[in-house]
Every structure is written in structure tokens, then in C-alpha cells.
Amino acid sequence: MASDCEPALNQAESRNPTLERYLGALREAKNDSEQFAALLLVTKAVKAGDIDAKTRRRIFDAVGFTFPNRLLTTKEAPDGCPDHVLRALGVALLACFCSDPELAAHPQVLNKIPILSTFLTARGDPDDAARRSMIDDTYQCLTAVAGTPRGPRHLIAGGTVSALCQAYLGHGYGFDQALALLVGLLAAAETQCWKEAEPDLLAVLRGLSEDFQKAEDASKFELCQLLPIFLPPTTVPSECLRDLQAGLARILGSKLSSWQRNPALKLAARLAHACGSDWIPVGNSGSKFLALLVNLACVEVRLALEETGTEVKEDVVTACYALMELGIQECTRCEQSLLKEPQKVQLVSIMKEAIGAVIHYLLQVGPEKQKEPFVFASVRILGAWLAEETSSLRKEVCQLLPFLVRYAKTLYEEAEEANDLSQQVATLAISPTTPGPTWPGDALRLLLPGWCHLTVEDGPREILIKEGAPSLLCKYFLQQWELTSPGHDTSVLPDSVEIGLQTCCHIFLNLVVTAPGLIKRDACFTSLMNTLMTSLPSLVQQHGRLLLAANVATLGLLMARLLSTSPALQGTPASRGFFAAAILFLSQSHVARATPGSDQAVLVLSPDYEGIWADLQELWFLGMQAFTGCVPLLPWLAPAALRSRWPQELLQLLASVSPNSVKPEMVAAYQGVLVELARANRLCREAMRLQAGEETASHYRMAALEQCLSEP
Q1: Is 191 exposed, middle or buried (0-12, 13-18, 19+ CB in 10 A)?
Q2: Of all helices (H) and strands (E), which one includes residue 590?
Q3: What is the reported pLDDT for 435?
Q4: pLDDT at 17 over 80
């Protein structure tokens, strides 16, 4: 063994005989003074980066942690020796040790993080070479710890983030190193950094934003790349938004090369993700700036996607997609839009051309690329466009529909990968180091609003049916419905889940009306009907979910008309429970309210319905019509309605209010239900007569009901 080691030892000595001599002196030191002197010689002979791992280990074996620990914490220095010299020596030794990743993660290094962090903000002579060397070594230690698997967590817990922020804001020696380390920590653990040091990080953001607004040199382009990393996960301070918008307006309003413009577009996209359009000032300057942003984004998208054979800068184009989406939102906003009508018309035309380029790109995507984040991002922006506009580019959209169905099906069947793709898209849209806000985690949800519009049109609907979209939508609805079923905490579900379910219902409603044969023959709709029937009774009882209940009730009633011969609808417990819940939804929409100074009450919306009636009323009227159509098809339904006392209570409600307070369309809806119930069942007619039905019908000029009740 000795013979094997001697050549290596001799080789090390030949490389640095002075170091070997000093290490020998260190090993033979008999007291602190001799050890201190030997350590000074060792650190003078080498720098941490000038030695190999084996030599570094030999220094550690000779020194250990005990003496550096004492140097870092001692409060009594030898006469004529400044305190910071001892600490500088201790930090230099730690920096040497931390060059070894194993030692950088050692508990004896990790427990020094709070002490090392204080050195970053300690006051002293800025020109003192020893102090500067200590600061450099401190950053070397902290950077080495940050590079270990659990290092960022230890640094954050040790107060390093706040210390780095203060060091940067102080602009003392090494402040640029503080900023670089902050960037690394935010990239590794953004949420934890903001949780532990939000006030300090916001102070850095304010400083960077102010510098960005004032910058007249090339530093403004560097700040464009840096600033997205420091945007908080919560609200961005208004003064920062003003500075960022002003800086971006000055940059993007100038003639730029792509390397200058692209970081600015990515910063603008990050702000659009975080703040929507709130960061853009109201008024003429703001509208011009927004129009410029969307214009530049559309030009960039067309240049990237229309030219074949050129490499697409996917991160830049994805950022442009975010700006286009902002443009779509503002162009479709009716109130308080930043844009004037002529600007909207112009931008819609420009965005139409860019969307055409997106469609052109997607038509060329083969199966091998379907799981790439950029494809997902391209489908997202197309979905945002189709949600608002399907009349233009109709031929191109129809040509792309088969791909979209296959793509959505692929990602639906691999839902976990689809969610990972959404995270990759968020990262792609902003920078290679900083993820942004979460994008919806499946492609189908992105396409639902557009498909809702397209299922109204004959041509696109036929393509969707041919490609199997209805079956896919049924499976998707049932899967998403599971997330809202009992046993799941619906309070933690994103709003997009419930919105997606409602949009699916709208698509199915379109198919019920325009393609009833499909509902009757496709088995997936039988499964859907069963789910609707079993789910509605509990759904109507849940507070805050009335709009979803309205969608489910109305869809179920319309489907029940088409599937009335199904065994599941022949008075089974599930069917009875469903219709009882549907009656509950339809019957509780209006109440009588007394009016001061009048003997008669008026008919008003009940409190739960009032706030959402604008979204609810079409479903309610359609539901009343569908229920009316179900009565003659399901013989058991009229007796069930009678047992629920709905017809009696409805007549009682009408009799208690002024006929002038009931709108004609309400009178027609109520009469339709009452007439069908009266025609279908003798006991219903008798119950209505006992409730003064004929008199009420006369007051409301319900001729059909009055005639029906006058018959035996």
C-alpha cells in the first residue's frame, strides 16, 4: 500500500513543495498561535481553485472544521490583528472545502449559512483587500451550497435571500455576485424564496424596474432578461408596473434587431401572464402601446411559422402567443377596453393572418411532434381565437379539425403527460429558468369553447362527428365529473374544471338540437344520461353551483326526450330522482315579494338566481320546454310532479302576485308545463281545479290551460 501511495505523494510534492511544507507545519502545530501562522501560510500558498480534489481533501484532513469554526466566531483577535482578518481566514478555508461538493453539503458547512449571510451586509472599509477577499470567499461558499441538491432550501431557511437582496441594494463590493446567486435561488425554489423574503425581493424588483425605466444603454436589454425572474407570484407593485411599461414602450417603439426585441417581447408576455392588461395605462398612450405589442407579436409569429426551413425560436413565438391572447381578450371586451373600435378592427385583421400561420404550422405537425410543448402552445392560441371567432378562416379550420381531434385524444389518453406539457409551455413562454403561471393542463379544455361554436355549423359539426369528437367529449366529461363527485374536495378545484363541464354541456345541447339521431344511436350518450341522472339530485343542493346544475338539468331533460324509450327512464329510482331534482331547479327560480303600498305582491327572481340570471335564463326556459316535452313521453312523470306539489304551488304563486309583474314569456313557459300535466293525468287536472286553476288561467289569459281544465 505504501509503495502505491508514495508516487502520488511525491507527485503532489513536486507540483507544490511549498504547500506540502506548510501542511507539515500545520500538522505539527502545538498551539493556536502556531496553527494560525501555519494556516496563513497555507491560504497564502494556494487559492481554492488552484488545487485538485485530492490536495483539497488533504488540506481538510489536516485542518478539519474545528479551527475554522473558532475563527468565524471568535471575538478576541491577537493584538494588532483586525477581527475581520480571522473571519476572512475562516471563510477562505470554508471556500476551499466547499469546492468539494461532498463537503459543501456537510452539516458543518450548512450550519455556517446564517453567519456567512451576515458577512454580505457587514459594514467596513470598501477598499480593504482582506474584506473584499472575504466577501468573494463568502459568495463562493454560498454558491457551492446552492449547487447541492438540498442547498437552496438550507440557504433560504438561513436567511440568505434577504441578505443577498440587501447586499445587492447596497451596491457594495460583490453586489453583482449577490444578484447572480439570487437568480439561481429563485430558479430553484421561487415559491419558498418569496415566502421567506417577499419585502426584500420586492425592494430588489423596485430597484431593477427603476433602473430599467431609466436605462439608455445596452443594460436595458440585459434587464429585460433579468426582470421576469423577479416578478412575484402575487401582485406586482403598481410603481414597478409603471416603470416596466415605460421602459418597454421606449424599447419596442425603436428600431431594433431581433436580439434586442425578443427579450422585451418575452418580458411583456410575462407581464401579460401575471397581470393581464392591468399593467398597461388607460388612455391614448396605453391603447397605442397595446396595439404595438400585438402587432409586433403577430409579425413575429408570421415570420417564424410561414417561412419553411427556418428554425423557429419557440420561446419567443410562445411569448408572442401570450401577447396575441391579450389582444384577443381586449378586442372582445365590451366595457373598459383599452382599445378603440378602429384599433380592434385593425388588430383582428392582423391576428387573423397570424392565426392562419399557426394553422399552417399545425397542419405540418406529424405524430412524432405531438408531445412537444410548442405544439401545445400553438393549439392553445388557436383555441383562444376559436373561442371568440369561427366565421373567418373557416375553410382552414375545417381542414385542421381532424388533427385537433386526434391531438386532443392523444393528450387526453395520456393526461399526466399533458399536464407536464402545460408546465413546459409556461416555462417556454418566459425563460429557460423561470416558470410562469400555470396553463390549463389539457388540450381538450382549450378547444371546448371553439368546438361549442363549431357544433352549431353543419360543416364543422359533421367533421367533428366523423372524427369521433362526441365520444371523446363524453369520456372527458365523465372523467372531469369524477373530480366534482362526493369524496373529492371541490373547494380546491380550479374554476376551469367547472367551466369546462359547463362548456361540454353546451356542446351536447347543440348536438341534441342539431344531431338528435347521434344521441339516440351512440352508446356514449346513454352513459352520459345515466351520469346526469345520478348526479343532479346532489348537485342542486350544493351552494354556489347553480349554473352547473342548470346545465346538467337542462341537458338531461332534452336528452330524456330523445331517449324516452330507454329502460333507465321508465320510472327507475335514478330517473325519479333526476326529475325531482329538475323540478326543484325549475320551481325555485321565482318568488312572490310584497310591495309597499300595494295589496298584491310581484313576481321576482329568488336570491340564488338573481345574480346569475343573465347566464341562467336561457337554460331555464329551455329546461321548462324540455320538461313539457317529456310529460307525454313518460307516463309516470305527471303523477310524480303532482306528488312534488309543483303544479299546485305554481298556481298558488301566480295567484298571489300581480299578473302585470309576470312577463309574457314566463306566462307561456308556466302554461306549457301546466297544460301538459293536466292533459296527461286526471288527478293533476283535479288538483289544479282545487287550486283555483281556471280562475288563475283566466287572469293570465292562459286560454289553453283554461280550456283544458274546463274539460272533464
Answers
A1: exposed
A2: strand 590-593
A3: 32
A4: no
Query: For the chain, how big is the Rg over CA atoms in Å?
Result: 36
Judging by DSSP bridges, how do beta strands 602-605 and 590-593 pair with one another?
antiparallel
Strand partners, 593: 602
CA dist., res. 63 & res. 36, Å (int): 11
CA–CA dist 109, 146 (Å, integer):
12
The dihedral over CA atoms of 12, 14, 15, 19, expressed in degrees to the nearest 10, equals: 70
Record the cell numbers describing residue 346, joined without a space: 385593425
| CB neighbour class for 573 (10 Å; exposed up to 12, middle 13-18, buried from 19) | exposed
- pLDDT digit string (tens) for 54-108? 766 767 666 667 777 777 776 665 555 666 777 888 888 888 888 888 889 988 8
CA 94, distance to chain mean position in Å, is 42
In whole angstroms, give the CA distance from residue 257 to residue 321.
Answer: 20
CB contact at 8 A, 498 and 514: no
CA distance to 157, 444, 449, 546, per residue, from 501 (Å): 42, 11, 11, 13
Please work out, in degrees rounded to the nearest 5, the angle formed at the alpha carbon of residue 236 by the alpha carbons of 231 and 242.
Answer: 105
What is the per-residue pLDDT across 396-427, written as a single tens digit (0 to 9) for each? Answer: 999 999 999 999 998 888 865 555 555 555 55
Cell numbers of 155, please? 440557504
Q: How far is CA 295 from CA 4, 299, 321, 472, in A?
A: 71, 6, 12, 36
pLDDT band at 701 (very low <50, low <70, confident <90, very high): very high
**For residues 598 and 553, is the Cβ–Cβ distance under 8 A?**
no
Strands (E) in 594-680, as ranges, are 602-605
Helix ranges (H only) for 147-174 are 151-157, 160-170
The pLDDT of residue 15:
55
Structure confidence at residue 434 as a pLDDT band (50, 70, 90) = very low
Cα(224)–Cα(169) distance, integer angstroms: 19
DSSP element (H, E) containing 138: helix 129-146
Supply φ then ψ for residue 74, to 5 degrees.
-65, 145
Measured distance CA(86)–CA(131) in Å, rounded: 11
Give the three-state DSSP class for 696. helix
DSSP code, position 604? E
At residue 591, the 3 state secondary structure works out as strand
pTM, two decimals, is 0.84
**β-pair partners for 603:** 592
Q: Is the dihedral of CA 170, 173, 178, 179 positive or negative?
A: positive
328's grid cell: 384577443
* 308 φψ region: left (φ > 0), alpha (ψ -120 to 50), beta (else): beta
First CA to last CA distance, the chain: 116
Residue 13 has pLDDT above 80, yes or no: no
Q: How many residues are recorded in the chain?
A: 712
